[in-house]
Amino acid sequence: MEKILIKDLIAKASEKLKKAEVTDYVIDSRLLAEYVFHIDYYKLLVHPDMETDVKNAQIYNQLIEKRAAHIPLQHLTGNQEFMGINFKVNENVLIPRQDTEILVEEVIKYINSQERKVKVLDMCTGSGCIAISIDKLCDNAQVVGADISKKALEIAEINNKENSAGVDFIESDLFENIKECFDVIVSNPPYIESEKIEKLMPEVRDFEPRIALDGTKDGLEFYRNICNNLSRYLKEQGAVFFEIGYNQGRSVSKILNEQGFEKVKIIKDYSQNDRVVFALR
């Protein structure tokens, strides 16, 4: 019987993904191998003659076919790490991204500077990655996550349970079902301009929920709607944190200024793009 070497499967897979114009074709072929064969890739480098059986080789090749069709890697594995925590993801939630860790880090720094219990609302929670990360990494946070999507909240509840977190999730069209006031409101809302959706990479455009991407005509509608309600749902001296698009810092700051916020700060990501807007009421 012919030997099936894992390294040979990875090499062929990498070429297939390259031809399909998958951006991270080398990395993705390796990560799917780790997922299917339950190996550490560095172990494979040390032991290059590791073999597999026909069944697992077929499973791997089937996943490579799907990845070549630009189905996101995270949808194939069902997981994405964020803030050092593992989150379940599927087609009903936005895949957590490293840029959003900037937002969470800023919120955590603020909460940990407070010497009291801090009530936090994560608006447009999706997979729950922001809310659960805050809950896990802040001892003094009481966290609520809200989203309009029932299917997204089902994933958030799974992540809440599997990570032993204590977030309360609420199905709500923005503030429709919110009854409390909060010390912190954080949100990574849909902020891509509608006409730009079709220009996104196929992994995003075709497989992630449009409801989590589309910020309407100018990309700012959700910021306006949330800010219009801050006087009712954010306590005096409370803090608001938004993730923003790279070119939205001034626009979102202006929306906050119009609502009476004076101390507005724009925070950049590791690529020196505007990424977070922070303001104190």
UniProtKB/TrEMBL annotation:
<keyword id="KW-0489">Methyltransferase</keyword>
<dbReference type="Pfam" id="PF17827">
    <property type="entry name" value="PrmC_N"/>
</dbReference>
<dbReference type="Pfam" id="PF05175">
    <property type="entry name" value="MTS"/>
</dbReference>
<dbReference type="InterPro" id="IPR040758">
    <property type="entry name" value="PrmC_N"/>
</dbReference>
<dbReference type="InterPro" id="IPR050320">
    <property type="entry name" value="N5-glutamine_MTase"/>
</dbReference>
<dbReference type="InterPro" id="IPR019874">
    <property type="entry name" value="RF_methyltr_PrmC"/>
</dbReference>
<dbReference type="InterPro" id="IPR004556">
    <property type="entry name" value="HemK-like"/>
</dbReference>
<dbReference type="InterPro" id="IPR007848">
    <property type="entry name" value="Small_mtfrase_dom"/>
</dbReference>
<feature type="domain" description="Methyltransferase small">
    <location>
        <begin position="102"/>
        <end position="197"/>
    </location>
</feature>
<keyword id="KW-0949">S-adenosyl-L-methionine</keyword>
<feature type="domain" description="Release factor glutamine methyltransferase N-terminal">
    <location>
        <begin position="8"/>
        <end position="78"/>
    </location>
</feature>
<dbReference type="InterPro" id="IPR002052">
    <property type="entry name" value="DNA_methylase_N6_adenine_CS"/>
</dbReference>
<comment type="similarity">
    <text>Belongs to the protein N5-glutamine methyltransferase family. PrmC subfamily.</text>
</comment>
<protein>
    <recommendedName>
        <fullName>Release factor glutamine methyltransferase</fullName>
        <ecNumber>2.1.1.297</ecNumber>
    </recommendedName>
</protein>
<comment type="function">
    <text>Methylates the class 1 translation termination release factors RF1/PrfA and RF2/PrfB on the glutamine residue of the universally conserved GGQ motif.</text>
</comment>
<feature type="binding site">
    <location>
        <position position="188"/>
    </location>
    <ligand>
        <name>S-adenosyl-L-methionine</name>
    </ligand>
</feature>
<dbReference type="InterPro" id="IPR029063">
    <property type="entry name" value="SAM-dependent_MTases_sf"/>
</dbReference>
<feature type="binding site">
    <location>
        <position position="147"/>
    </location>
    <ligand>
        <name>S-adenosyl-L-methionine</name>
    </ligand>
</feature>
<dbReference type="GO" id="GO:0032259">
    <property type="term" value="P:methylation"/>
</dbReference>
<keyword id="KW-0808">Transferase</keyword>
<dbReference type="GO" id="GO:0102559">
    <property type="term" value="F:peptide chain release factor N(5)-glutamine methyltransferase activity"/>
</dbReference>
<feature type="binding site">
    <location>
        <begin position="188"/>
        <end position="191"/>
    </location>
    <ligand>
        <name>substrate</name>
    </ligand>
</feature>
